[in-house]
């Protein structure tokens, strides 16, 4: 069985280390790279063609329209790419929130992401 490839883009190095440790322990998961830099993460996604791109929701706040356009372009280049926004804030998951209104990615709460994603990847 081929490994499921992930890239994690999050400025919190503690979170990325924890995510790498937990998800990397799953038998069928390969963490390609982690980075705290959005531009670097998007370049890594284009270069490595992961199955999943996990992005911290703080990147959506800085320049949302540019990021949405970048993600739409990335999805058009790699239609099987699953983009997931990771958030600390429950209100970002609710329908109607700014993050929820765009359709380029799913939203998962960071507190639940490990269990949610592990179930999906197994």
What descriptive keywords fit this protein?
single chain; 122 residues; alpha/beta; Rossmann fold; five-stranded parallel beta sheet; 6 helices; globular
* Gyration radius, rounded: 13 Å
Largest sheet: 5 strands, parallel
* Poorly predicted tracts of residues: none
Euclidean distance between termini CA atoms: 11 Å
So how many helices? 6
CATH evolutionary superfamily = Response regulator
Write the layout of secondary structure elements.
Elements: E1 4-9, H1 13-24, E2 29-35, H2 38-48, E3 52-56, H3 58-62, H4 64-77, E4 82-87, H5 98-101, E5 106-109, H6 110-121
Parallel strand pairs: 1-2, 1-3, 3-4, 4-5
Explain this structure to me?
The chain is of the alpha/beta class and 122 residues long. The chain has a single domain, classed as 3-Layer(aba) Sandwich (Rossmann fold). The chain has 6 helices and 5 strands, in the order βαβαβααβαβα. It has helices at 13-24, 38-48, 58-62, 64-77, 98-101, 110-121, and strands at residues 4-9, 29-35, 52-56, 82-87, 106-109. Strands 2-1-3-4-5 form a 5-stranded parallel sheet, with helices on both faces. Helix 1 (13-24) links the parallel strand 1 and strand 2 (29-35).
Give a quick precis of the structure:
This protein has 122 residues and is α/β, with parallel strands linked by helices. Helix content is 48%, strand content 23%. The model has no long low-confidence stretch (mean pLDDT 81).
């Amino acid at each position: 069985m081929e490994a499921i490839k992930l890239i994690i883009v999050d400025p919190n190095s503690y979170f990325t280390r924890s995510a790498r440790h937990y998800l990397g322990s799953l038998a069928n998961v390969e963490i390609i790279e982690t980075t705290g830099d959005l531009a670097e993460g998007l370049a890594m996604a284009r270069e490595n063609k992961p199955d999943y791109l996990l992005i911290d929701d703080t990147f959506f706040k800085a320049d949302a329209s540019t990021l949405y356009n970048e993600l739409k372009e990335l999805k058009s280049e790699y239609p099987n790419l699953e983009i997931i926004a990771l958030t600390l804030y429950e209100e970002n998951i609710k329908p109607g929130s700014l993050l929820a209104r765009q359709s380029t990615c799913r939203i998962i709460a960071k507190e639940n992401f490990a269990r949610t994603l592990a179930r999906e990847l197994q």
